[in-house]
Specification:
Length: 271
């Protein structure tokens, strides 16, 4: 029985090759973290001859990893919680308000999605300085504003799939606005909430530019600059610090990954 080669097999081979191309940088970082600087420079593509863990020890001590990780976790947690709460409430009211101004406000949120951060970063840094937001708690407020457009856009589409009859029945029974939202509407937004939480957590945890402009120090990404400068390049500790910083957010992503595609599809199609 002869085997006939099908075009689909060529496509599969191409996709496997493409997947390897995208995953190679992560593998390179992991392998480099287990090698001394000399081996990284002389044999960058070679596998480590033995497990060299000194890079992780040095990265942990020099970065003061527990301190900067705690600060980054605080900023990420408060940022995500604030974005989810404020954006879900705003999207709910905009979706349920049948007035022209509601459509206009929603359009402004949608328009903000196409504005590159590089255009507003200098005015934003000046504004943060003027308002006294140049600290870990202050930058959280900036993340609320920057994350709101995407979150409102996604919540708005999902809220339209929630039957109005549930809210009307609760209102007839005497329930207030806060009760209706937090006890009826918000629990039904679980898929899109998880999606937004994961996407924003990945963004805030790995963000480098905004902390550099606003607080100058204290986060994991800013602490990693100690290993790479004009006259100093310690590739081993640098790659080890990248691995250390990636582990927590990868675990968070793996826990909630099943909600991402489900929530994005639902928020984009429903309504």
């Amino acid at each position: 029985m002869s085997y006939r080669f099908k075009p689909i097999h060529l496509l599969e081979a191409f996709m496997i090759l493409l997947a390897f191309v995208f995953i190679y940088p992560a593998l390179f970082v992991l392998v480099s973290a287990l090698k001394p600087d000399a081996d990284i420079m002389l044999r960058p593509l070679a596998l480590p001859s033995s497990l060299f863990l000194d890079n992780f020890v040095k990265a942990w001590k020099v970065m003061e990893f527990p301190r900067v990780a705690a600060t980054t976790l605080l900023i990420t947690t408060l940022g995500v919680v604030g974005i989810v709460l404020t954006s879900s409430m705003a999207a709910w009211m905009l979706a349920r308000t049948e007035r022209r101004y509601a459509w206009l406000i929603y359009s402004l949120f949608a328009f903000a999605l196409v504005i590159p951060f590089q255009i507003i970063m200098v005015p934003l840094a000046v504004l943060a300085s003027d308002l006294g937001l140049t600290n870990p708690l202050g930058i959280v407020v900036l993340y609320w504003g920057l994350g709101a457009p995407m979150a409102v856009f996604m919540f708005h589409g999902f809220v339209k799939s929630v039957p109005k009859e549930l809210e009307e029945s609760a209102a007839i029974d005497g329930a207030g606005t806060a009760f209706i939202f937090f006890r009826i509407v918000f629990p039904l937004l679980k898929p899109i909430t998880a999606t937004i939480a994961v996407l924003d957590a990945l963004w805030i945890w790995n963000d480098f530019l905004l902390p550099l402009l606003v607080i100058k120090q204290g986060t994991i990404q800013l602490a990693q600059m100690q290993f790479y400068g004009q006259f100093l390049k310690e590739y081993g500790p640098l790659t080890a610090s990248l691995v250390l910083s990636a582990v927590p957010i990868i675990v968070f992503y793996l826990v909630l990954q099943k909600y991402i595609i489900k929530g994005i599809a639902a928020g984009a199609v429903k309504g």
